[in-house]
Design goal:
Layout: H1 22-34, E1 47-51, E2 54-57, E3 62-65, H2 68-71, H3 80-92, H4 104-116, E4 123-128, H5 131-146, E5 150-154, H6 163-168, E6 186-189, H7 209-221, E7 228-233, H8 247-260, E8 263-267, E9 291-294, E10 305-310, H9 329-361, H10 364-367, E11 371-377, E12 380-388, E13 393-394, H11 396-408, E14 411-412, E15 414-416, E16 420-423, H12 431-446
Parallel strand pairs: 3-14, 5-6, 5-7, 7-8, 8-9
Antiparallel strand pairs: 1-2, 2-3, 4-10, 9-10, 11-12, 12-13, 12-16, 15-16
Helix pairs in contact: 3-9, 4-9, 7-8, 9-12
């Protein structure tokens, strides 16, 4: 049985104590004494329960959640059908290890993912526990299949924190500090960040330099193309600043990969699973990868990482790669329920509510001098803060004040990149809640 839940009519914030409240302060003190200081907490939220797009803290304060557990609870907090699937599976079998035995659910989920993954070729699926594990599997698979050992990734990228995924990551120096040496043979090039074009170009004058630089500079100077196993890229860059590249960026990467026999890996850990208004972000550009990795929203909060490749590409043999807990039966059950809900309307809702929010946000650079750019797809939206719209000087302090101010008014948002506030609510956010979130943010930004 589930515990007491928030009344479904209570769909908006309500604060009844100062933040943090007395119960929260007690838990914060305990956390400070015993929990690793490596975690990054933006504000002192101590959560007790959640339902839909609402979470309640240990003092009874109610918040509208536009962070979704960092883009994880795709179907909303504790969706009844996901909870039912988890409870039913947990009562029957929690673990046996799909590495050495078989689960019907694992085979069923693999079939479903193969059916909905981009690209026409038959697919096979590897299961891990997280996004970073899915990326590690993609790196190993690319090396195994191509017989090559080098990788190309992008500045601003975040692919995870284990050693291979961290070697691809180029988001913040603190994530790499004191962890070297990392995996060798990783080369980073600029991402297609059109608002801050690294080549000083405008979209109408751009020949996709962020992709063509790979052939023009890397392959001609320091990196033999025949040594490159994979190009690894986020179709929409997440932690780097919710950056939406032009479709021709992915098209050019596909062309380069095909020309040189390189695997193209799309990291859709954050941007996949319906968040952008399509099941996969790469579908907006009409480009399919050789390997797709995803996690976060795929199981509505249960740990699951997925690596999908064509059946021919996933050619490694028994023992080449495995995971004791990967594809856990309870996580599998949650994922199957999640995909059903996505296909029954949540992907369309993300597209519809996202358009509603972006239409309103499009006016903010004109209305608010501190807003330099607004961008996004579906319910993956970034608001970039600047000190001056002409110089585009980044304003991380203003972004942080906006995040804190939103929390103090009952809205949960987080930052990304150097100076971007991101909106990544559950995909069942409704129109009234979307309007409420933007009303709160308008009040906060107007007072900066």
């Amino acid at each position: 049985m589930t515990g007491p839940m928030i009344n479904t009519s209570e769909r908006f914030p309500m604060l009844s104590t100062p933040l943090p409240g007395p119960n929260a302060r007690r838990i914060l003190a305990l956390d400070e004494q015993y929990v690793s200081p490596s975690y990054t907490r933006a504000y002192p939220l101590v959560v007790k329960r959640g339902q839909g797009a609402i979470v309640e803290d240990v003092d009874g304060n109610r918040f509208l959640d536009c962070s979704a557990g960092i883009a994880v609870v795709a179907t909303g907090h504790c969706h009844p059908r996901v909870v039912e699937a988890i409870q039913k599976q947990a009562a029957e079998l929690i673990h046996m290890s799909g590495t050495d035995f078989y689960y019907e659910g694992m085979a069923r989920l693999a079939r479903k993912l193969a059916e909905i993954a981009p690209g026409d070729a038959p697919k096979k699926v590897y299961f891990g526990n997280s996004g970073t594990e899915a990326v590690e599997a993609a790196m190993k698979l690319a090396r195994y299949h191509t017989g090559r050992d080098k990788f190309i990734a992008f500045l601003g990228a975040f692919h995870g924190r284990t050693m291979g995924a961290l070697s691809l990551t180029a988001s913040k120096p603190v994530q790499r500090h004191k962890f070297g040496p990392l995996v060798p043979g990783v080369y980073h090039v600029p991402y297609a960040y059109c608002y801050r074009c690294p080549y000083g170009l405008t979209p109408d004058a751009c020949a996709v330099e962020c992709a063509t630089v790979i052939e023009r500079d890397l392959f001609r100077t320091i990196l033999p193309s025949k040594e490159v196993a994979a190009i690894v890229v986020e179709p929409i860059q997440g932690e780097g600043g919710y950056i939406v590249p032009p479709p021709k960026f992915l098209e050019e990467l596909r062309r380069i990969a095909d020309r040189h026999g390189i695997a193209l890996v799309f990291d859709e850990v954050q941007c996949g699973v319906g968040r952008t208004g399509k099941m996969w972000a790469c579908q907006h550009a009409g480009v399919a990868p050789d390997i797709l990795v995803t996690a976060k929203g795929i199981a509505s909060g249960m740990p699951l990482g997925v690596t999908i490749a064509s059946a021919d590409f996933m050619s490694w043999g028994p023992g080449s790669h495995a995971s004791t807990f990967g594809g856990n039966p309870v996580s599998i059950a949650a994922a199957l329920a999640t995909i059903e809900l996505l296909e029954e309307g949540l992907v369309e809702n993300a597209a519809r509510i996202g358009r509603r929010m972006l239409d309103r946000l499009a006016e903010w650079p004109r209305r608010f001098p501190v807003v330099g750019d607004v961008r996004g797809m579906g319910l993956m939206i970034g608001i970039e803060f600047v000190t001056d719209q002409q110089s585009k000087q980044q304003a991380p302090a203003l972004r942080d004040r906006a995040v804190q101010g939103a929390f103090e008014r009952g809205l949960l948002v987080l930052g990304c990149g150097e100076n971007v506030l991101r909106l990544m609510p559950p995909l069942n956010l409704d129109a009234d809640q979307a309007d409420c979130a933007l009303d709160i943010l308008e009040g906060v930004i107007g007072g900066l």
